[in-house]
C-alpha cells in the first residue's frame, strides 16, 4: 500500500487542535472538514482527467476535465460522514455511496449495518473516508465491498492511522491484489488495549456527534 503522510504545517496545526480534549464538537466538526479538504488535494493528485478544448474570450485553449465515470466517494458511517463535505468541496460532482459500520468493542471486528453502493464499480476511482484507521478491520471490510463490485482504484483518506492498522491492510491486500493508496494526516505510535489509537484523538464518532449507547 502506498502510504502518503501529508506533511504541511497547517495540517499539523489543525490536527493538534482536533486532538485536544478541550475542543468542542462544533469546532471538531469544522476542523475535520478543513483537514479533509487539505488531504483531498493530495488524495486526488491522480484523479483521471481528459483533454478538452474551450474558448476563452480571447482564443481557443486546451485544458482538461474530470473523466467519466465520475469518482465515487464512500464515507464509512458514522464518523466518516464528518469528512464528506470537506471532500465534496474539492470534488463537487463526485457520486456518493455509503457504508455503515460499527466496531464491536469486545472483538474489535467491524459489523456492517448499512450498504448503499453502485453495483458496478469497474473503472471507477473510489475514495473511502474514515477518520480513524485503528485495527484496520473497518477499512479492510470497506475495501472488500468495493473490490467485490469491481473497483480497482481505491484511495483511503484518514485523519489518523496506527501502524498496526496499516500493517493489517497491507497483509490483506496481498491476497486481494488491488492497489490501495492511503492519504493520512498522521501515523501515531500504537493501539492501546482497547484498540484505540495512542495518542490519537479519542472516539472520532463521539467527538463529532456525541455518545450514542
Ligand atoms: O480500524 P478499526 O479498528 O476498525 O477502527 C476504526 C473504526 O472505528 C470507528 O468507528 P466506530 O465503530 O466507533 O463507529 P462510529 O463511527 O459510528 O463511531 C472509526 O470511525 C472507524 O470506522
Ligand atoms: O482511536 C480510535 C479507534 C477507533 N475508533 C475511534 O474513533 N478512535
Ligand atoms: Mg465510534
Low-confidence parts: none
pLDDT averaged residue by residue: 96
Strand content: 25-35%
Might you state the CATH topology name?
A: Rossmann fold
Alpha-carbon Rg, integer: 18 Å
Strand element count? 13
Structural class: alpha/beta
Provide the domain count: 1
Bound molecules: 1-O-pyrophosphono-5-O-phosphono-alpha-D-ribofuranose, uracil, magnesium ion
So, CATH architecture? 3-Layer(aba) Sandwich
CA distance, first residue to last residue: 35 Å
Described by the principal axes of the CA atoms, the overall outline is: globular
DSSP summary: helix tally: 6
Portion of residues within helices: 25-40%
Oligomer: single chain
Biggest sheet, open or closed, and with what strands and sense?
9 strands, mixed
What's the CATH first level? Alpha Beta
Order of helices and strands: EHHEEEHEEEEEHEHEEEH
Catalytic activity: UMP + diphosphate = 5-phospho-alpha-D-ribose 1-diphosphate + uracil
GO molecular function, one term: glycosyltransferase activity
Binding site for uracil: 197, 202-204
Organism: Aeromicrobium alkaliterrae
Amino acid at each position: 500500500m502506498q502510504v502518503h503522510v501529508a506533511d504541511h504545517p497547517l495540517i499539523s496545526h489543525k490536527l493538534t487542535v482536533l486532538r485536544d480534549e478541550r475542543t468542542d464538537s462544533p469546532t471538531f466538526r469544522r476542523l475535520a472538514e478543513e483537514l479533509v479538504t487539505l488531504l483531498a488535494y493530495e488524495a486526488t493528485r491522480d484523479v483521471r482527467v481528459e483533454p478538452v478544448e474551450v474558448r476563452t474570450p480571447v482564443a481557443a485553449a486546451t485544458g482538461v476535465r474530470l473523466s467519466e465515470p465520475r469518482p465515487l466517494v464512500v464515507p464509512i458511517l458514522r464518523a466518516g460522514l464528518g469528512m464528506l463535505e470537506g471532500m465534496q468541496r474539492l470534488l463537487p460532482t463526485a457520486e456518493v455511496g455509503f457504508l455503515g459500520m460499527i466496531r464491536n468493542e469486545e472483538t474489535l471486528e467491524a459489523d456492517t449495518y448499512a450498504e448503499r453502493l453502485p453495483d458496478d464499480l469497474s473503472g471507477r476511482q473510489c475514495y473511502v473516508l474514515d477518520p480513524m484507521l485503528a485495527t484496520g478491520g473497518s477499512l479492510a471490510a470497506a475495501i472488500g465491498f468495493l473490490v467485490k463490485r469491481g473497483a480497482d482504484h481505491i484511495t483511503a483518506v484518514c485523519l489518523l492511522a496506527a501502524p498496526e492498522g496499516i500493517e493489517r491492510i497491507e497483509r490483506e491486500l496481498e491476497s486481494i491484489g488491488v492497489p490501495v493508496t492511503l492519504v493520512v494526516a498522521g501515523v501515531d505510535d500504537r493501539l492501546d488495549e482497547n484498540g484505540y489509537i495512542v495518542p490519537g484523538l479519542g472516539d472520532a464518532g463521539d467527538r463529532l456527534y456525541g455518545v450514542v449507547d
